[in-house]
Amino acid sequence: VNMNAWDLVRQGIWHLQQVTQATHLRARDLLREACHLDPELPEGHAWLAQASAEIVGYGWSESPAADAREGMNAALAAIHLDEKSPYSHYALALTSVYDAALDQAVRAGERALELCSSFAPGHFVLGMARLFSGDAHAAIAPLERALRLNPYDAQNFIWCNLLALAYFFASNTDMARQCAEKALKIRPTWRSTLETMACCDVALGREDAARQCVEQMAKLEDPLGDALAPLKRRNPHWIRKMASLLRKAGGS
To answer: How far apart are CA 203 and CA 133, in angstroms?
Structure first.
């Protein structure tokens, strides 16, 4: 193993955990270099796949199709190099979510958990893939398990919001609101979570609280992208429901 490549992977992981556009782009550069220095290091490819998928998912990509393709190729390379690594299959699941291959994402998430049943990211991505596929009820258990196994992941504001949406679309609005509240404690200005919270508040008859969420959203810059884009494309009926509730929250 090329230790310089390992150092680059570690640096790349650190940058990914900051969850900003600049740090994700820097992480991808570091991970690309790691893969170049040691093409046989599966972790380099797996983390490059994750970086590429998240850059697309968060709307930080100038070339989403090319970046999604790079992520998919990296994930498949990771599996080729180490089929027994749950990280390799997690990487494939995550890239598949943002490459409109949700059935493959579910299979890859399941495979990651077959290899390691206590692998928190595997439970997260399986729940995510099931939710985006339209099965809110089946998404709840793996998302709950992911948060129990790793309550302090750097992207738990996403994990909690997805669990909130799963509960919301499964008609458990009280639990949905509790999960949205946890997500807002982690990242108070994440627009998607504010939307979830506003929808929950309207559904629960908390009009004033819902209006406060909408007012807070109005103060934020428009996001570059939407990590929920695959869910919205696959489940337009859910999005129409949320849009109607958000209009009520805004008083229109």
So the answer is: 24
